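[step 3/7] fold_predict: job queued, chain A
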Amino acid sequence: MSKRIMVVDDSRLARVQLGDVLEGTDYEIASYVRSGEDAIEQYDAVKPDLVTMDIIMQGMDGLDAAEIILKQHPEARIIMVSSLAYEDTFERAKAIGAKGFVDKPFHREQLLKAFEEALG
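[step 4/7] structure written:
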């Protein structure tokens, strides 16, 4: 049975790349959302096994959105996927409970390994 992924990213290119990477794997994209606010709003309806969360988006950033989702759903598994690969960003992501961090541009192996670790 495939694992359901919620992709939170305002970049159409990133969403297309994630779709391409996941083709032929045990992961299916259950939902694409373009903002942190939409991710929070739709999490209950989608019930994803895993969330990929960009950090820099219009409105609420991904770290704030992840923090709110994790407060409401401590069992949520969120991987930050961002080009904002700085030590303080890693530390904040870890502190709020993100299960991993993948920097953009990502590679298939790197992304799938992060998924396995987050779900393991």
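[step 5/7] annotate
The chain is about 45% helix and 20% strand.
The two ends are 15 Å apart (CA to CA).
exit 0
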